[in-house]
Amino acid sequence: MSQLLALEWNGSEARVVVAASRGEKVVIEQAFSATLRSEPSGKEPSGEEAAEVDVGGRIAAALAARGVGRIDTLVAVGRSSIELRQLSLPPAPEEELPDLVSFQAIREFNELDENWLLDFVPIDEPTDGPRNVLAAAIGPELVAQIERTCQTAGLKPRRLILRPCAAASLLGRQASTGPARPRLLVDLLSDEVDLTVMIDRRVIFVRTAR
């Protein structure tokens, strides 16, 4: 039985889910949140490093209180933390899309270079015509911050995922099959809301509002 921890945080709280695979099923063992707000009488953290240590330390304390050890971790990243673009590509088979996305993204993203992480999801079905994808890029500074926070919390980050796409993937697997139709997924969080438009199981639009 292997375990996986899913983690996501913003300025106010960290949200954690611990799950285990049992055969072909995934069972949620724990789900909880940990506040990241400063105590009224406490000292406000100053500087990026202090903030990171505080976040990692509070996550570590919440995990220890629930007996959660060092587990492979999936970190969900909010829409506001990444750059997202819809890219139009020339006709191409699926296996050529990664190279085309990398080439087009250099022209479309403002600060993208070889140090950024880049990924994409197609938003249309494979055809003989032009292809459209949603491409997401995350800067090296944020990646390093996530890695340091996880290290402080005693976690092993294995994968980064865009939070709205993770929620859409779960809905797509649970929803009944039928004719493709537009759906709006509303994910309410502590101080913001993710709005994700899907057609069938494909994400075509993402926005986060506070």
Written overview of the protein:
This protein is of the alpha+beta class and 210 residues long. The chain has two domains: 3-78 and 139-179, Nucleotidyltransferase, domain 5 (2-Layer Sandwich), CATH 3.30.420; 83-137. The chain is 27% helix and 40% strand. It has four helices and eleven strands, in the order βββαββαββαβαβββ. It has helices at residues 47-65, 97-108, 140-153, 163-174, and strands at 3-9, 13-22, 25-35, 72-77, 83-89, 117-122, 131-138, 156-162, 182-188, 193-199, 202-209. The longest helix is centred in the N-terminal third of the chain and has 19 residues, at 47-65. This is SHS2 domain-containing protein.
List the helices and strands and how they pair.
Elements: E1 3-9, E2 13-22, E3 25-35, H1 47-65, E4 72-77, E5 83-89, H2 97-108, E6 117-122, E7 131-138, H3 140-153, E8 156-162, H4 163-174, E9 182-188, E10 193-199, E11 202-209
Parallel strand pairs: 1-4, 4-8
Antiparallel strand pairs: 1-2, 2-3, 5-7, 6-7, 9-10, 10-11
Task: Write a short abstract of this structure.
By secondary structure, the chain is an alpha+beta fold. Helices cover 27% and strands 40% of the residues.
